[in-house]
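Hi R.,

Here are the chain sequences for the assembly we discussed:
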Amino acid sequence: MSQIQERGSTHVYKVNKISKEEIESMVARCVYEHPPFCSAACPLKLDVRAFLEAAAAGNFKKALQLYEKAAAFPLVLAAGCEAPCEKRCRLAEIGDAVSIRAVEEAVARFGQAQKPGSVFRTRKKKTVAVFGSGLFALFLAGEIEKKAYPLTVLCEEADLEGFLRCETDFLDEDAFRAELKRLRGKDIQFVFGCTIDAAFFAEKRGAYDVVCASPAVRQRLFPEAASLPELMYCEEERLVSGPCTGVMDAAFGAKKAALTVDRLAQNLDPRNTRGQEGPVDSKLYTDLSAATALTKTPMPGAGYSREEAAAEAGRCIQCHCEECFKSCAYLAHYKKHPGLFAKEIYNNTQIIMGDHQLNKPMNSCALCGQCTVVCPNGVDMARVCLDARRNMVSTDKMPLAPHEFALLDMLFSNEEAFLSRPQPGFESCKYVFFPGCQASAIAPATVKAAYLDLCERLDGGVGLMLGCCGAIGDWAGRTELQEQTKILLDREFGKLGDPIVIAGCPTCKKELAGHEGLQIVGIWDILLKLGLPEGGHGLDRPAALHDSCGARGDESTRNAIRALAEKLGCVLVDTPYSGDRSPCCGYGGLSAYANREVAKELTEKCLARSDAPYISYCMACRDRFAREGRESKHILELLYGTDAGAPPDISEKRYNRLTLKKELLWELWQEETKEMKLDYALDYTGEARGMMDERMILTDDVIAVMDEVRKTGSCIFDEESGLYIACRRIGNATFWVKFSREGDAHYLVHRAWSHRMQVVKREG
Amino acid sequence: MAEKNYYTIDPEGKLTCMKCGVPLIKGKARFMYLDNGFPVELPVCPVCGFVYVPEELALGKVASVERALEDK
Ligand code: SF4
Ligand code: SF4
Ligand code: SF4
Ligand SMILES: [Zn+2]
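And here is the predicted structure of the full complex:
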């Protein structure tokens, strides 16, 4: 049997073939990191989602901290803000928007402000002055203080109360007192009772590194000076200021001005690297279907109580795009949104030297395409992961270990277990039945029944081809093996007279569609036309129909299966994510070989949709569901009244393929297969059998070891266990067998293990 | 200079080579994988050179080094 060449060395320094632009466009399509519409609309960039989450949990302290990030004087802002966020709240589309401003006001009222001095800060060196008073000066002073610049406010008012009163007459007395207390706690130097005229200004400004003024002071002293509103800066006067009207405008202006101060203090051009200021565009997708609390919490005149505020905040549905996470267990497992994940996987392919930490994640994706149909923007992780695998293979950096077993299994299907024959009595055929490697491995009797039925009921001859379609090579990123398979199959199709292929598996159908000039139908289409075979019957209980990921985008196959199930009398229950949005059973993309845990989670996700028995039309799905203990039937088992029984282990899957081939060759073509009979008896303990399945060790591997023992006598005796131990290098791995001698030429295998490293004796 | 051994097992006379009829002894061996090598001391037959890799070692240390190298 063929082997697959392991890569020679870890010291290969080749790079990628994936186009960076393509990855970037994929990454850009994912809107996971877009802000919710409420935050996007807020010029102050309040993290509304986190704010409401904290408030809903009753954590007003945290909520207030977030709100103070947006504005240093929360009660002033809350009293005067026009709440553009509420206008964009998604809930407004189906009911009342969250009363964000009212929650803010309550949080500002009840939230515990941080005690002054509770956070240790180092003051910066450069000094800043603000001349004047009013909303802009107030907010600006707050922002500059946050940035820890030593700040002096020079105002005309006589005291702090007077300073705060300026332009804030909309504040009620309680709020005013609270803000006064907050202002007192700030690290700001005040000079009261100033007469701010040109002479005063000229005299004082020199003492500070950066100078700011309220709009009124600027207007009075420099009526001609124009300030750029996006910078809040009059360049010719080197003065930070600008026009502002209203609370929100002043708070936003103060944010921009504070950034300008920051840049000037560092002797940088205030125009550069300012990031995105003000409201932004968001394309976030939110599923509103689960939203329930659609009417707002009524508000008494005095504003929300703590409880009411928390209740109102709790109405927020925490807009996030997580369509793909909700549906795909693989993405949920790694907890990474595709925008980030795709980038990391791409970067993984770019590493020339060092660890490729994303190998396992990239090989764990089922390549099933579900994300692409559930994502509102069609993000295609299968494409990303498959390209990455191909790339790693082509640069000789792909580990063979995770996929070797599956690839050897594919070679086995297309060598020892391969069969291609025209129907007895025909030289060339109108059709050829291609059941797929998993069908022969898992349900050989069903394959046989289906083939005999097709031969009987179709005219023109039906050939039979037992083999693998090449999907396994494709999934492993080994395009060469996929190509070889294609050549083999095409040659064999040619010998049969280029028949129409009747695929027994939707993945085979999809894979074979890549062959030029090949006509393919599903067996389901044929059976729908011919009518049900005799002996078939549906399940006597309602069942869930699991759509194969191989049938994604193939509505006609999905409909044909449903029609057959209905004809069989099956009652199908509705399941979420059925049809085109179906999840993968865990077999796809060789996920199960690279990451059992993820594959199991994928299977469980499928089964969590319903408690009913499952009907599938891909043998791998049937197998994985049965392994999880669910009653699981392939539609062909129902159609032919066959029962594939308990799921076979890896060795039985090979045995089944060989036996089916042998049986059919003998019964239909009267060809005898040479039996390879062992000239000794070999048994396995139950433990050994389970261990071998788990460790991917075949009975064939054990036989190879035992053959060697009998030939060379080379083995060791372990006194402790009283057992013998032998090994043999087969392909890229060394297999070890621990056994007892049960008599002359009779062995009982107790344990088996393997490793890929080679071990040699070292001299010296 | 003597190479540092990554792993040492002493058979303590409990393993016998059936081909040569002698006990295995602690001997020098080397693991090789993907062009990387690690010196170890394992039970070795002094006559035929059979090197024994116990199950725990294969599934433990050896497997984890394999994983690490595969992702290089
Ligand atoms: S569904 Fe997933 S991939 Fe698509 S935009 Fe949302 S988070 Fe991104
Ligand atoms: S529901 Fe919440 S997160 Fe979504 S837009 Fe409204 S306030 Fe923002
Ligand atoms: S397993 Fe399927 S749904 Fe999940 S990321 Fe991969 S291709 Fe997309
Ligand atoms: Zn020996």
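Helices of chain B lie at 55-70. The two ends of chain B are 28 Å apart (CA to CA).

Let me know if anything looks off.

Best,
T.
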